[in-house]
């Protein structure tokens, strides 16, 4: 008997039951490209099987925090009782999952982030990194897990065209989430990028119809450009730009969104450069083993890119945060050999929420705990 990702078939059975009984289903996803692509693949799979998606929801990281949030649950409670499937988030939301159950949501978590000692009390949890999961490959993006789920759900109803299209999204999101390009991820990427330039999905097709790649010598550079454009923060009616582009019905519609994103991308580049310059001016004589900087003036959407540049340039784990009125929200890029999630776990008493990947993760904490958190991190590294 072949080994399966733990609980993946169980989730498929529960979704099929919900479709058969005409239950309400909510898809609750992170707004990065991995979360967006995972939501689109699962939404289209369920729709093809005749299921009813009552709502989709992308939490705003800046205003409500990362993951399943109280604000999100309160907004969605008008749909309960229903099946709530969280994608690319939720594995660290212990308190929020309990609240969801009180509000009569049946919660399924599908995630790929690091496990924080235990798992939330959801109905079903899928995460290849959880205890008892014997599947040999652990480094999927969430969209990779969802692609495998859609294969189980659709079986012979998955047409060649549908498979190709889902693999295009899977490839783009796996690359965007910087997952290792080996084993099954390598297969997803090789298969998915093969048809990208001739995609039937208007949102992807439009990129290649526009005059964007004059100075790009190879396909990898073109793909990198597409991913960077889709990652530009631009939310309308709660939906991120990547979702709006990739689900658009026409080249005209997607073209308008892409042009807007290209304009924003210029400002984005300038903003990242300014944040990097400001940090570098402040750390000239810094001897600390980490870079730990924040400001209330920084655009939260830009600090991840700035952290990547600083971490690479100085070879130090970099903690950048936007300071809000009472709390701060931050991002981490870890230097080689450092697991950022394990490191934060040792200082978690100062944090409200945290989680992510070993090399790239995030956190939220009260402003009064910023210095204590920094001191704890330095102490642990020393």
Q: Outline of this structure?
A:
By secondary structure, this protein is α/β, with parallel strands linked by helices.
What does this protein structure show overall?
The chain is α/β, with parallel strands linked by helices and 382 residues long. It folds into three domains: 187 residues, inorganic pyrophosphatase (n-terminal core) (Alpha-Beta Complex), CATH 3.90.1640.30; 78 residues, no CATH class; 99 residues, Diaminopimelate Epimerase, Chain A, domain 1. Helix content is 47%, strand content 16%. Helix 2 links the parallel strand 1 and strand 2. The longest helix is centred in the C-terminal third of the chain and has 32 residues.
Descriptors:
globular; Diaminopimelate Epimerase, Chain A, domain 1; 3 domains; 382 residues; 16% strand; 5-stranded parallel beta sheet; 5-stranded mixed beta sheet; 47% helix
How many β-strand stretches?
12
- Quote the distance from N terminus to C terminus: 47 Å
State the order of secondary-structure elements, H for helix, E for strand: HEHEHHEHEEHHHHHEEHHEHEEHEEH
CATH topology type of the largest domain: inorganic pyrophosphatase (n-terminal core)
Mean pLDDT: 94
Largest sheet: 5 strands, parallel
**Alpha-carbon Rg, integer:** 21 Å
CATH class of the largest domain: Alpha Beta
Strand content bin: 15-25%
Instruction: Tell the overall outline.
Output: globular
Compute the number of helices: 15
Strand order of the largest sheet: 2-1-3-4-5
Query: Which stretches are low in confidence, meaning pLDDT under 50 for 5 or more residues running?
Result: none
CATH architecture heading of the largest domain: Alpha-Beta Complex
Q: What is the count of distinct domains?
A: 3
Helix share, percent:
40-55%
Specify the structural class. alpha/beta
